[in-house]
Amino acid sequence: MHRLIPESPRWLLSQGRVLESEAIIREAAEKNKVSTPEVIFSDSEVKEAASQNSKFSALDVLRTRDIRKTTFLCLLLWMAINIGYFGLSLNTSNLSGDPFLNCFLSALSEVPAYMVSTLLLKSCPRRPVLSAFLVIGGGFLLLLQLIPESLHTLALALEMAGKFGFTMSFTVVYIYTAELYPTVLRNLGIGMCSSAARIGSITAPYIIFLGTFNKYLPYILMGSLTIASSVTNMFLPETFGKVLPETLEQMQKCKSFIRRDKHASEEGKGTVMMTEENI
């Protein structure tokens, strides 16, 4: 199947394979009924792409303060989501009732989750959507300890609702993380976050094992961690409807909403002071 997917034109350009890159772009333009110029890439663009490709490494993901903050928050998000997602998946066999039916319902809950998250990604901002999904996933897990033991069906429904929220978060975080990192570091950023996700999936069985001491303890830990990650997510910049960053400089210009609000309030105060002076 991978032979049916074209290579990245930007990567081909960085490798000096200009003709192959232009051929892919022309083919895509033809399918979309868009005309292309005779010369797509100039010599200066080819040299710039080649120079950018050679001067970046994994250390650049942690080089500046803004990039370190983004990377650290993304690592926390990926770990928390994977702990909850795989924790609930592994805990399905421990639920009351028919284990085969429970596994079927757990898998079935993911189908609408992927469909809903895909539709929302086309028209909704990433940051509030991801935080809402995390609150849904973690909130239902925290509610489980309030359900009487006799209401097995309600407890199962809440856990499936939590799985629904984690699945949607799993979908959104992939897109959101890719939009946060610039083109030159996107693969490295996704790779580091994916490694953090594997740490989360490795930790999940040990959290589920805590249920042998207290059956609500895994739900409390996973729910609390998820709610906390939904708060940290709000410190990341919004990417919806914006041009994707291509360089480190463009990425550093994307600030979190708190910093933007602070600057806006400072500018507002300055405007008021200037108005008063003019009066």
TrEMBL record:
<keyword id="KW-0472">Membrane</keyword>
<feature type="transmembrane region" description="Helical">
    <location>
        <begin position="70"/>
        <end position="87"/>
    </location>
</feature>
<protein>
    <submittedName>
        <fullName>Solute carrier family 22 member 5</fullName>
    </submittedName>
</protein>
<dbReference type="InterPro" id="IPR036259">
    <property type="entry name" value="MFS_trans_sf"/>
</dbReference>
<dbReference type="GO" id="GO:0022857">
    <property type="term" value="F:transmembrane transporter activity"/>
</dbReference>
<dbReference type="Pfam" id="PF00083">
    <property type="entry name" value="Sugar_tr"/>
</dbReference>
<dbReference type="InterPro" id="IPR005828">
    <property type="entry name" value="MFS_sugar_transport-like"/>
</dbReference>
<dbReference type="GO" id="GO:0016020">
    <property type="term" value="C:membrane"/>
</dbReference>
<feature type="transmembrane region" description="Helical">
    <location>
        <begin position="153"/>
        <end position="176"/>
    </location>
</feature>
<feature type="transmembrane region" description="Helical">
    <location>
        <begin position="99"/>
        <end position="121"/>
    </location>
</feature>
<keyword id="KW-0812">Transmembrane</keyword>
<feature type="transmembrane region" description="Helical">
    <location>
        <begin position="128"/>
        <end position="147"/>
    </location>
</feature>
<keyword id="KW-1133">Transmembrane helix</keyword>
<feature type="transmembrane region" description="Helical">
    <location>
        <begin position="216"/>
        <end position="236"/>
    </location>
</feature>
